[in-house]
Amino acid sequence: MTVRRIKTYSGESGLVYQYYFLESQTRRRFWGRGGTAFRFHVTSDRKNFFVAEVVVEEAALQAWERAHGRALAEPERYAAAKMALFRAFDESSRPEAISRIRVSEANIESLLEPLHLDD
Predict the structure, then answer these.
(1) Residue 97, CA distances (Å) to 13, 30, 74, 75 in order
(2) How much is the mean pLDDT over the chain?
(3) pLDDT tens for each residue of 35-87
(4) Is 1 within a domain?
(5) Label partner for 64 (CA 20 to 30 A): which of 22, 46, 78, 116?
(6) Would residue 22 count as lying in a domain?
(7) How far is CA 113 from CA 36, 57, 92, 110, 117, in A?
(8) What is the tally of helices (H) and strands (E) in the chain?
């Protein structure tokens, strides 16, 4: 039996979320963007859980590598997914609206900037 570590995040939206990591899966799309999906089990009321999926797009990883001269390590990719999840928590006043979140070329820099990965 797997024991999950439940974590808490107080969003700027005023809601307090509890979540834990479920799994990651590689996503290959023939017509869309490929990447890695990080899935989290989330609740804001301790009763109703839902799955929030954060896709770290391959194009975002390539953009990061071009800009910084190195690829992101797997823990850094997970960090990008968690930062995107936290941003969704901060920006959404409706938990049910949080389901599919993307780390893209447009937002990867702003998501990872607070972590100072280049220091």
Answers:
(1) 13, 27, 27, 27
(2) 92
(3) 999 999 999 999 999 999 999 999 999 999 999 999 999 999 999 999 999 99
(4) no
(5) 22
(6) yes
(7) 20, 17, 21, 5, 7
(8) 3, 5
Which DSSP state fits 93?
S
Residue recorded with tokens 């999906």: 37
Residue 2 lies in a domain: no
Q: What total of structural domains would you count in the chain?
A: 1
Locus of tokens 């997970």: 78
Please answer whether residues 104 and 60 qualify as being in contact, where contact means their C-beta atoms are separated by less than 8 angstroms.
yes
In a domain, 18, yes or no: yes
The residue range of the domain holding 109 is 7-115
CA angle 12, 18, 23 (to 5 degrees): 115
